[in-house]
Here is the input.
Amino acid sequence: MTASAPALTTVAGLPTIINGPARPRATLILAHGAGAGMQHAFMETIATGVASENIRVVRFEFSYMAARREGRRPGPDRAPVLLQAWREVVAEVGKPARTVIGGKSMGGRMASMVADELDVAGLVCLGYPFHPSGRPAALRTAHLQRLATPTLILQGERDTMGSREEVARYRLSKSIGVQWLPDGDHSFKPRKASGVTEAENLDTAIEAIVAFVRSATS
Here is the structure.
């Protein structure tokens, strides 16, 4: 099914793009990573690909990223601000039992910190930042050990914020499933010599997200 044209709007006062059916059975809400907004090519590819399977996809921007549209260059908001944005967006979109939340890197991490609180159907993290790049000892996994929300983490095997070898050593909740993208980096891009293309990894990610959202909201 072909997704409808995106609607440019606001949700909870934040810039938003909506793809997919107007009356969906399931909704996926996605937040962007720390350095690029909701219209980045990665976010666009994932959102339109999932929406083409009759799932509504709501992408929003945190307030600091919205400010960059006005020519300012603020850094990311502090965690309490980001978490409150998630609460307000989910409250306005509604129907948590039919909603999966998540996002790219930081956006997915913030979603993981409120998923249980918001009682959503599921969580999808696209390149979870298990630790800052180059600082493997600074783990961001404490809350993932007790996470109850059904979770899908899509991770490139070479992700510098959590490679396959590193993540194998972490203690994670049984509610979390990790699917690895062959030779992928933090944005799932493989090396040319791998024999896998970036498009193939993105297609695999989209297929996994669609299956997960359908299962979580069934």
Remarks:
- The helical segments are 41-51, 63-68, 79-93, 106-118, 164-167, 198-216.
- The two ends are 19 Å apart (CA to CA).
